[in-house]
Amino acid sequence: xxxxxxxxxxxxxxxxxxxxxxxxxxxxxxxxxxxxxxxxxxxxxxxxxxxxxxxxxxxxxxxxxxxxxxxxxxxxxxxxxxxxxxxxxxxxxxxxxxxxxxxxxxxxxxxxxxxxxxxxxxxxxxxxxxxxxxxxxxxxxxxxxxxxxxxxxxxxxxxxxxxxxxxxxxxxxxxxxxxxxxxxxxxxxxxxxxxxxxxxxxxxxxxxxxxxxxxxxxxxxxxxxxxxxxxxxxx
Length: 235
Ligand code: PEP
Fold this sequence. Notes:
The chain is an alpha/beta fold. The protein has 9 helices and 8 strands. An 8-stranded parallel β-barrel has the order 1-2-3-4-5-6-7-8, surrounded by 4 helices. The longest helix has 17 residues, at 168-184. The radius of gyration is 17 Å and the shape is globular. Phosphoenolpyruvate (PEP) binds next to strand 8. Phosphoenolpyruvate is lined by residues 7, 155, 160-161, 195-198, 216-220.
């Protein structure tokens, strides 16, 4: 079983989600399908054969935080997962590992599973800091002093939406480091997803790499014709 998670970013409508939900009903798979959609679409469909997630959450439980959505609110509307620390949140909203960690904690406390993203920028890659950024991202963003499931997603920031992917050796090295780091933090067995420019033509190969427990898919998760072949490319 692999995790196949879609990140719709700021795209789509309830109608598009209904179309996707209708298409997913007919897909025979043992994989765990998760669709992380905009807040406004969370209540649009009753998920059948897939789970619904959000793309961000407040670090606070309730109160005077205008415009924010709490993990409890997400739970109440049926979300089971939340992406936290996506590179676009880190880039456009200055989210640090510390902020990401606090969002992951509030998510776990509400009974949801955070999908915690880590990954290096092109500058960091070119200056030889990939491993350092990945390890500190995991150590500082993933809570280790609270029980509850988490998922980690390795998303090389330079490859997202760019049609670029790291080499098999690079993905292997990143996922091995993440698995070892999680183990040293008492979180052995945490699912580790790969994300960035996953398509139907590379999904199976990427998911055959050691310690790749699934994929986080952006652009190719928006349409059934692109997303379903990714789901069915592995058992
Ligand atoms: C993402 O934004 O999480 C992502 C993986 O995007 P894409 O698949 O479009 O590169």
